[in-house]
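Sharing in case it's useful to others searching the archive later.

Someone asked me privately for the predicted structure of DoxX family protein, so I'm posting the question and my answer publicly. Question first, with the sequence:
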Amino acid sequence: MDLTFFTPYMLSLLRIMVGLLFLSHGTAKVLGFPKWDERPAVLSIYWVAGLFELVLGTFLTIGLFSRQAAFVASGVAAFAYFIGHARKSFYPFLNGGEAAVLFCFVFLYLVFSGPGPISVDALIGLFSSSTTQ
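And my answer, the predicted structure tokens:
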């Protein structure tokens, strides 16, 4: 069986799952769900980051303005790494920043790959089919 048939659909699945994970960071920081002991103060830099995670995570999950959302989300993840993790240690394993690094590079990949065929972008024809796969 040729698995390359599934490649564009797996791209969509990757985008949806990483979008949901990013979204969950935003819901915890901004909406308090799931309950998190370190919920940031409203309008603090961490709360604003949560607002970005909430909005961009939603866009990425549904696949709307996917490339633009992924570009901004990649920057948000990089910013989060350098502000919240890098000062603790050089090594992501020791500073707790593995998720931020992975988010950053997966989002950067999505900027270039597009959202895949299962997306609002593909549904409304925002991009040609060659850029959504």
